[in-house]
Amino acid sequence: MITATDEKFSYKIKIKESDIDEYCHVNNVVYLRWVQEVSMAQWYEVTSPELRALYALVIVRHEIDYFSPAILSDEIIAYSWAGG
């Protein structure tokens, strides 16, 4: 069983040209794709193949804080953690 943790998982994201919209910044839809990528990367990091065969990952909440527009040259580090 996976339990809640305060330990943050970090994930580096490389912005691609296709992530940029007509306003020259990352489109909000892309952030949602990144949330999925981070969730899956964390799932594979903290579980074994045996555990993944028994359980499915279910995300019940996502939260995105937008501090400023992301542009092509930015480095994005996303953080995720399991809460209870």
Features:
84 residues, alpha+beta, Thiol Ester Dehydrase, Chain A
Q: What would you say this structure looks like, in words?
A:
With 84 residues, the protein is an alpha+beta fold. It has a single domain, classed as Hotdog Thioesterase (Thiol Ester Dehydrase, Chain A), CATH 3.10.129. Helices cover 30% and strands 14% of the residues. The protein has two helices and two strands, in the order βααβ. Strands 1-2 form a two-stranded antiparallel ribbon. It is elongated, with a radius of gyration of 15 Å.
How many H/I helical runs?
2
Please give the share of residues in helix: 25-40%
Radius of gyration: 15 Å
CATH domain fold name: Thiol Ester Dehydrase, Chain A
Mean pLDDT: 90
Q: Beta-sheet strand percentage? A: 5-15%
Strand count:
2
Q: What order do the SSEs take from the amino end to the carboxyl end, as H and E? A: EHHE
Structural class: alpha+beta
Please list the strands of the largest sheet in the order they lie side by side. 1-2
Which CATH first-tier class would you pick?
Answer: Alpha Beta
Main sheet summary = 2 strands, antiparallel
Low-confidence stretches: none
Distance between the termini: 13 Å
Total individual domains: 1
Q: Kindly report the name of the CATH homologous superfamily.
A: Hotdog Thioesterase
Query: Which CATH architecture?
Result: Roll
Oligomer: single chain
Assign an overall shape.
Answer: elongated
